[in-house]
């Protein structure tokens, strides 16, 4: 069941909310939790009922392992705890490995050694990467004694809660389970319902009106690259720019809808998207894009690798990085290696294919270069907080171009199609311009220009409209306030600090104070307008991009 479907918006969601608060009136807070678990499992089974068994099996086994880990921690049986943890991690990675990468592995074996092993054509269970990572984190925290031996029902809701089950955010038990134990969470509040509805329909509008419309200018270009059609310079860039906006508003919209749907039940999810195209460097970008995935990778992958490398250097009598400054060798071991390994695995997490590995390695390289640049700046005494407006804009441009180049592989059906498209984008196939310019600018032929038309493959019916829409959506992404800024005073995300956000807000956005969201009739009319416009455009329902992971 999709968030942007009639059955979800007009049946599942309102019925779920109504029965949730209706059961709460009975006075027993366990009944609302039972209902939420049942509704979440129904939501998951709607897509493919047999895979509900897999989800339940995963929940039951991981819960049992977490109980065993808690007992081992209390009994101070560290070796036993490590063994249980490894069993749990291998079980979870085995699930992802089989369903997500088995056919990819067989295909590469066939290609490498000339065999013809039959592919299994395995259907990827929805959300398996998300709920598996979430449970791995819970097992690690149980091993370290950070969990409290929660009730099975609460654990079921923690994993299966439908707003975050399919595509995140990847939530932590410390931010979710305490909410389930509070009686106040389940009391009906008009504010929660109005805030939730507003955020949900803002997200739906982003998905249906922005993401789905701009996808019409991305899909034909990438399909042509898949078929081996040599793209022109302009076609390739329109496709890449359009897709960068499609995934931006698709993921932003989903993140809003997840937070909004959860808020209707009085449950607050953490922010997962914070205007990443406004970032001045790639480090800041990844702190804004898929924020909970970045948090997970940093805590459970990057930090352990960096800690291991640090201890090894200390044992060898080598210096570490101090106050952001260190030797090239220290930087390579303590920053470059952990970053590249982490981002390579992040790329693999997104999908089975060489193109995802390239995507991960590209972003790992970007982050490594960014960290190296910061270290170099600190070495020469530069205050990184004192950056001019010009440097910020240049950094923003470089970050966007680098990100868009990596997104080509993220979207491409294979690595070959991605390389082909990048070749067109960066002029390796020449730059096609209108034939009418040949007389005046024929000298440009010597520099690789061709006068056969900017769009001679006729892949787009209205290229000018596409360019206009790309420009409009970049203006929205780069200059408009995001959802949490509009809703700043009503905690639009778990732990959102509106005072800190206001302190960081650009001065030219001071006008926003007059238009911030409040539960008024005018804002209610605005929300209804967004709903009507979005629902009227639901004729061609499309999946969210991150549902495939």
TrEMBL record:
<dbReference type="GO" id="GO:0016746">
    <property type="term" value="F:acyltransferase activity"/>
</dbReference>
<keyword id="KW-0812">Transmembrane</keyword>
<feature type="transmembrane region" description="Helical">
    <location>
        <begin position="354"/>
        <end position="373"/>
    </location>
</feature>
<feature type="transmembrane region" description="Helical">
    <location>
        <begin position="394"/>
        <end position="413"/>
    </location>
</feature>
<feature type="transmembrane region" description="Helical">
    <location>
        <begin position="193"/>
        <end position="210"/>
    </location>
</feature>
<keyword id="KW-0808">Transferase</keyword>
<keyword id="KW-0012">Acyltransferase</keyword>
<feature type="transmembrane region" description="Helical">
    <location>
        <begin position="122"/>
        <end position="140"/>
    </location>
</feature>
<dbReference type="GO" id="GO:0005886">
    <property type="term" value="C:plasma membrane"/>
</dbReference>
<keyword id="KW-1133">Transmembrane helix</keyword>
<feature type="transmembrane region" description="Helical">
    <location>
        <begin position="6"/>
        <end position="23"/>
    </location>
</feature>
<dbReference type="InterPro" id="IPR004299">
    <property type="entry name" value="MBOAT_fam"/>
</dbReference>
<feature type="transmembrane region" description="Helical">
    <location>
        <begin position="523"/>
        <end position="547"/>
    </location>
</feature>
<feature type="transmembrane region" description="Helical">
    <location>
        <begin position="83"/>
        <end position="102"/>
    </location>
</feature>
<dbReference type="GO" id="GO:0042121">
    <property type="term" value="P:alginic acid biosynthetic process"/>
</dbReference>
<dbReference type="InterPro" id="IPR051085">
    <property type="entry name" value="MB_O-acyltransferase"/>
</dbReference>
<comment type="similarity">
    <text>Belongs to the membrane-bound acyltransferase family.</text>
</comment>
<feature type="transmembrane region" description="Helical">
    <location>
        <begin position="458"/>
        <end position="480"/>
    </location>
</feature>
<feature type="transmembrane region" description="Helical">
    <location>
        <begin position="330"/>
        <end position="348"/>
    </location>
</feature>
<protein>
    <submittedName>
        <fullName>MBOAT family protein</fullName>
    </submittedName>
</protein>
<feature type="transmembrane region" description="Helical">
    <location>
        <begin position="152"/>
        <end position="173"/>
    </location>
</feature>
<dbReference type="InterPro" id="IPR024194">
    <property type="entry name" value="Ac/AlaTfrase_AlgI/DltB"/>
</dbReference>
<keyword id="KW-1003">Cell membrane</keyword>
<dbReference type="InterPro" id="IPR028362">
    <property type="entry name" value="AlgI"/>
</dbReference>
<feature type="transmembrane region" description="Helical">
    <location>
        <begin position="30"/>
        <end position="47"/>
    </location>
</feature>
<dbReference type="Pfam" id="PF03062">
    <property type="entry name" value="MBOAT"/>
</dbReference>
<feature type="transmembrane region" description="Helical">
    <location>
        <begin position="53"/>
        <end position="74"/>
    </location>
</feature>
<keyword id="KW-0472">Membrane</keyword>
């Amino acid at each position: 069941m999709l968030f942007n479907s009639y059955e979800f918006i007009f049946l599942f969601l309102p019925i779920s909310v109504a029965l949730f608060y209706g059961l709460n009136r009975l006075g027993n807070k366990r009944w609302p939790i039972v209902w939420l678990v049942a509704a979440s499992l129904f939501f998951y089974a709607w897509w493919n009922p047999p895979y509900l068994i897999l989800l339940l099996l995963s929940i039951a086994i991981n819960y049992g392992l977490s109980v065993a880990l808690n007992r081992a921690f209390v009994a101070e049986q560290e070796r036993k705890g490590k063994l249980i943890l490894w069993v749990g991690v291998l079980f979870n990675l085995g699930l992802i490995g089989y369903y997500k990468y088995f056919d990819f592995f067989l295909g590469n074996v066939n290609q490498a050694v000339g065999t013809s092993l039959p592919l299994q054509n395995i259907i990827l269970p929805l959300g398996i990467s998300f709920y598996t990572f979430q449970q791995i984190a819970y097992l690690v925290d149980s091993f370290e004694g950070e969990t409290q031996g929660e009730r099975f029902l609460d654990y079921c809701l923690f994993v299966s809660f439908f707003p975050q089950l399919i595509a995140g955010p990847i939530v932590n038990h410390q931010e979710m389970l305490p909410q389930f134990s509070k009686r106040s969470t389940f009391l009906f509040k008009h504010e929660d319902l109005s805030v939730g509805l507003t955020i949900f329909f803002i997200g739906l509008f982003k998905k249906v009106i922005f993401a789905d419309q701009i996808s019409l200018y991305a899909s034909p270009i990438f399909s042509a690259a898949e078929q081996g059609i040599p793209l022109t310079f302009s076609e390739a860039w329109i496709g890449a720019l359009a897709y960068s906006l499609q995934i931006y508003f698709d993921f932003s919209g989903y993140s809003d809808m997840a937070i909004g749907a959860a808020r209707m039940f009085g449950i607050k999810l953490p922010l997962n998207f914070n205007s990443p195209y406004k970032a001045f460097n790639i480090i800041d970008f990844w702190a804004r894009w898929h924020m909970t995935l970045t948090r997970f990778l940093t805590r459970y992958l990057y930090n352990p690798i960096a800690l291991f490398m640090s201890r090894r250097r200390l044992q060898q009598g080598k210096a570490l990085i101090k106050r952001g400054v260190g030797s090239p060798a220290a930087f390579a071991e303590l920053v470059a290696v952990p970053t590249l390994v982490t981002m390579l695995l992040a790329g693999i997490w997104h999908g089975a294919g060489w193109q995802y590995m390239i995507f991960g390695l590209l972003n790992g390289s970007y982050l490594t270069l960014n960290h190296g640049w910061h270290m170099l700046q600190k070495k020469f005494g530069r205050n990184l907080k004192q950056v001019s407006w010009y440097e910020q804009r240049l950094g923003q441009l470089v970050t966007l171009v680098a990100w868009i180049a990596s997104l080509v592989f993220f979207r491409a059906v294979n690595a070959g199609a991605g390389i082909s498209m990048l070749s067109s984008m960066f002029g390796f196939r020449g730059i096609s311009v209108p034939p009418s310019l040949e007389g005046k600018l024929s000298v440009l032929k010597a520099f690789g220009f061709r006068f056969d038309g900017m769009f001679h493959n006729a892949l787009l019916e209205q290229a000018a409209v596409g360019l206009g829409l790309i420009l409009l959506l970049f203006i929205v992404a780069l200059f408009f306030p995001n959802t949490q800024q509009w809703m700043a005073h009503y905690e639009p995300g778990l732990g959102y600090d509106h005072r800190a956000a206001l302190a960081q807000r650009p001065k030219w956005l001071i006008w926003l104070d007059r238009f911030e969201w409040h539960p008024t009739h005018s804002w209610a009319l605005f929300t209804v307008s967004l709903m009507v416009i979005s629902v009227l455009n639901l004729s061609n329902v499309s999946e969210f991009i991150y549902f495939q992971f």
